[in-house]
Amino acid sequence: MANLFDYLKWRGDLSLEQTSINDIDSLVLSRLSYLPFDGIVPDTFSSGVTVAEAAAGLLQRDDVEDEVIMKMDLPFLKEVANSRRFSGMDLCGYTNQVDPNAEKQFAALAIKMTPQSFYIAYRGTDLSLAGWKEDFNMSFCTPVPAQVDAVRYLNDAARALPGQFYVGGHSKGGNLAVYASAFCRPEVQDRLVFVHNHDGPGFDSCVLESGGYRRIAERIKTFIPQSSVVGMLLQHEEDYYVIRSTQIGLMQHDLFSWEVHRDEFVYLDEVTDHSKFLDRTLKTWLTQLNPEQREQFVDALFSILEETNASSLKELTLNWHKNARIVLKSLHEMDDDMRHNLSQALGLLFEAAKQTMRENVQKTIPKPKLLQSRTLDHNKEP
Q1: Cis omega before residue 143 (within 30°)?
Q2: Which terminus of the chain, N or C, has less C-beta within 10 A?
Q3: 330 vs 215, 257, 301, 312, 337, CA distance in Å?
Q4: Burial degree of 239 (CB within 10 A; 0-12, 13-18, 19+)
Q5: Distance CA 304, CA 327 (A)
Q6: Three-state DSSP string of the chain
Q7: Domain boundaries 4-271, corresponding CATH code
């Protein structure tokens, strides 16, 4: 089945003048924000380097394989840098911030597609625990620090750069793209062509009901794989497009598994029953927890992980056996209130799962047909 790499081979030789930007281009540009361009791409909007130059600088680093989030990012970058369509685009305004104390992880990149059109790409969650904690914080807090920075970044880019803007991101980056577009200055909103959320979580009602969101709602497109988990979190007001993936379950969040046909995604009519089950379960669970309880659960969960002294998921998994013992010890030594909060939240999650299962079973049981009563006519033969 064809994927992003096939698209780059099929359409990589065509410039934007020959075929205008499409949904798959948006996914390609969103993924570029994940590359660790620290020290390569300028952090200002006044100067930039081409995709080809940035790729050459990054690929010559000895430790580049340890820096990227996914191994596929390196062959992906090589294909993008070798394509006529993307190689000459300028990259600028690169920022990458991880602050454990502020529980913030934020990264973004501006891509000059033509002299009068720019793509603002927001990075999704990286491997830092600070980034994952911020994702969990979205369940009870709006805005989180990365969302505040996303708005500031878009406003700053619009002040420095001319023309039209296309905004997008994958995972948390998709959420940041929508949030920034909803709360940037009105004159910036007027310059937005589209806003793409690639399997990123939604928002609470205060965002969806805001005037800023309403002004750009028709320009938002959300894409999710058929067994989406991340992209179904929280609430979505906009319609979403379901893409077929070659992976299973949570692994479908990997955008390299999304299928394409020529210059379009391969779409399905709806998400799988598994995705619907998780969506209903998580939404039921969250409605049973007030914001304070959600915060207590997240704090308790990450306080355990902090005991390992790991700052990233990679560090956590590399010393898994040692860290597992630390986690178990932390659970045992946890104070009564925190243990109660954690147990209560997990108990409600299991109850929500059972409730969803019962609802599914009831839907699958055929309803008995009601027999219409008839008056027997004794004058008729049987």
Answers
A1: yes
A2: C
A3: 48, 37, 10, 18, 14
A4: exposed
A5: 6
A6: CCCHHHHHHHHCCCCCCCCCCCHHHHHHHHHHCCCCCCCCCCCCCCCCEEHHHHHHHHHCCCCHHHHCCCCCHHHHHHHHHHCCCCCCCEEEEEEEEEECCCCEEEEEEEEEEECCEEEEEECCCCCEHHHHHHHHHCCCCCCCHHHHHHHHHHHHHHHHCCCEEEEEEECHHHHHHHHHHHHCCHHHHCCEEEEEEECCCCECHHHHCCHHHHHHHHHEEEEEECCCCHHHCCECCCCEEEECECCCHHHHHCHHHECEECCEECEECCCCHHHHHHHHHHHHHHHHCCHHHHHHHHHHHHHHHHCCCCCEHHHHHHCHHHHHHHHHHHHHHCCHHHHHHHHHHHHHHHHHHHHHHHHHHHHHCCCCCCCCCCCCCCCCCC
A7: 3.40.50
Domain assignments of the chain as residue spans, ordered by start? 4-271, 279-363
Q: How far apart are CA 28 and CA 377, in angstroms?
A: 75
Contacts of 165 (CB under 8 A, 6+ apart): 117, 118, 119, 120, 154, 157, 158, 188, 191, 192, 193
Angle between helices 291-306 and 336-364 (to 10 degrees): 120
Contact 247, 1 (CB under 8 A): no
For residue 179 the two structure tokens come to 């949030």
Q: What is the pLDDT of residues 229-275, one digit of tens each?
A: 665 665 666 678 999 999 887 788 899 999 999 899 999 988 877 77
pLDDT in tens, 1-60: 899 999 999 999 999 999 999 999 999 999 999 999 999 999 999 999 999 999 999 999
Beta bridge partners of 265: 260
Report the distance separating Cα 241 and Cα 198, nearest Å: 10
Q: How far is CA 125 from the centre of its chain?
A: 8
Place of tokens 């910036």: 188
φ, ψ for residue 16 (rounded to 5)? -65, -25
CA–CA dist 304, 333 (Å, integer): 10
Average pLDDT, the chain: 85
Alpha carbons 19 and 169: distance in angstroms, whole number = 22
